[in-house]
Amino acid sequence: MNIFVGSLPFSIEEADLRESFEAYGAVDSVKIITDKFTGRSKGFGFVEMPNDAEAQKAIDELNGATVQGRAIVVNKSEPKPEGERRSFNNNSRGGDSRGGYGGGNNRGGNDRGGNRGGY
Fold first, then answer.
1. Locate the RRM domain: which residues (predicted)?
2. How many domains would you assign to the chain?
3. Can you name the residues that pair with 6 across neighbouring β-strands?
4. Assigned domain for 63 exists
């Protein structure tokens, strides 16, 4: 089972998270999501446990538990539906329409280019 863990303290390490879940059973993998530019934790991650019963027990007991002063959120991770990804792409298409506004700026750029030609 893939488990989402949120509201993590930014200082927590994957080894600490693994240890918390190993108290309930075998853990296949632990991944804390980090910002690709700063490398800083984004405050959430995922834990994979092969045994669904152990995973459910970990979810039941760790959800709301305090870790380094923060109440963490633990629940079953559901795969993101394709529709959500598409709606994100629709938002970026909306960005393309703003690119039309940028086209107005390009016309302004042409005027400036014409001015440069006059120098």
1. 1-79
2. 1
3. 73
4. yes
